[in-house]
Amino acid sequence: MKLDDYRYDGSKKFKVADFDTKAKHLTIDKEMILETGQLNLKKLEIMQDRFYAERKEAILIILQAMDAGGKDGAIKHVMGGVNPQGVEVVNFKTPSEEELAHDYLWRCINRLPERGKIGIFNRSYYEDVLIAKVHELYKKQNLPERCKTSEIFNERYEQIVNFEKYLWQNGIRIVKFFFNISKGEQKKRFMKRIEEKTKNWKLSEADLAERQYWDDYMKAYESAINNTGTPYAPWYVVPADKKWFARFFVSEIIAEVLDDIDPQYPIVKKDQEKMLEKCREYLNNEEKLLLQNKDC
After folding, report:
1. Taking Cα atoms as reference points, which of 135, 59, 137, 37 lies closest to residue 95?
2. How far apart are CA 296 and CA 294, in angstroms?
3. By the 8 A CB rule, do 241 and 14 touch?
4. Are 126 and 95 in contact (CB under 8 A)?
5. Structure confidence by residue, pLDDT tens digits, 23-73
6. Which helix (H) or strand (E) holds 58?
7. Which pLDDT band, with edges at 50, 70 and 90, does 158 fall under?
């Protein structure tokens, strides 16, 4: 299965109206997909261990979606088997007073992953060209008037592209996912959150309020993806109506990224080899040495 059809790196345009959220046009064997997904998870476990040991690059995974898009489930499913020391998940909520006193990239810059780690941004600085665009939040911010122009979002697209190029040039790989669900599927998931007691906490009136702006959000996502997809920081638009397929999709792309990096365990230097040999000798003779010390 070619997932490159869902990759947007500036070479083609993303159109919400043409996108199949159920991936109906693909010949999908669910059993085979689930089996491949499990193999991917095992592969991720092995590759991430090497990646963490090598510490040459970092990976930043950005997840964006409408409410109930499946981001949380994907994180839990795809990253469940990797070493938690090498993964950090950051959930970006409504900006705090301190965050609003800085530029919009500031709070995300502070949480970038270090080399050897995979950072996952559950929402990100893209909120400032999505919800901020839909609700024109910039008009209420304490910004100089010269910043509050009709060009503000075109300027932010340019800033984001430059920022992501900077990250790429400094050893951070960026992989961006938009979980694209249909309005009908979102309704089903909201209803499930109402009907199942254990899921009640997941739904709020704010979720329903945002649903009223569905078309505006789709235009904002379309514009953001088309203006910020680059070869070094591509977008992957995930057909997200089927959770099992969306999770497979994410695991497949992350496995491909790690394959491309091809991390290796560090090569032991000669002085380290000597140290290891001394450690071996000590451990092999540990009991004898302890007895000698007791006799003394």
Report:
1. 137
2. 5
3. no
4. no
5. 876 767 888 899 999 999 999 999 999 999 999 999 999 999 999 999 999
6. strand 58-65
7. very high
Q: Does an H or E element contain 278, and which?
A: helix 270-284
Distance in angstroms (rounded) separating the CA atoms of residues 121 and 127:
11
**Residue 121: its H or E element:** strand 118-122
The tokens of 46 are what? 């092995």
Whether 251 contacts 40, CB under 8 Å? yes
Q: Three-state secondary structure along 156-174? A: HHHHHHHHHHHHHHCCEEE
Which residue carries 């795809």 as its tokens? Answer: 78
Encoding tokens for residue 169? 């040039």
Find residue 237's DSSP bridge partners: 178
Q: Given the DSSP bridges, would you call strands 235-239 and 172-180 parallel, antiparallel or unpaired?
A: parallel
What's the number of CA atoms in the CB half-sphere (13 Å) around residue 232? 14
CB 265 within 8 A of CB 194: no
More confident residue, 78 or 81: 78
Question: Which residue reads 């990797």 in tokens?
Answer: 82
Single-letter amino acid code for the residue at 153: F
Helices 152-169 and 214-228: crossing angle in degrees, nearest 10, is: 50
Q: Which residues pair with 8 in a beta bridge?
A: 235
Q: Using the predicted structure, report yes or no on whether residue 294 has a pLDDT greater than 70.
A: no
Q: Concatenated DSSP letters for 218-282? A: HHHHHHHHHHH-BTTB-EEEEE-SSHHHHHHHHHHHHHHHHHHH---PPPPPHHHHHHHHHHHHH
pLDDT at 289: 66
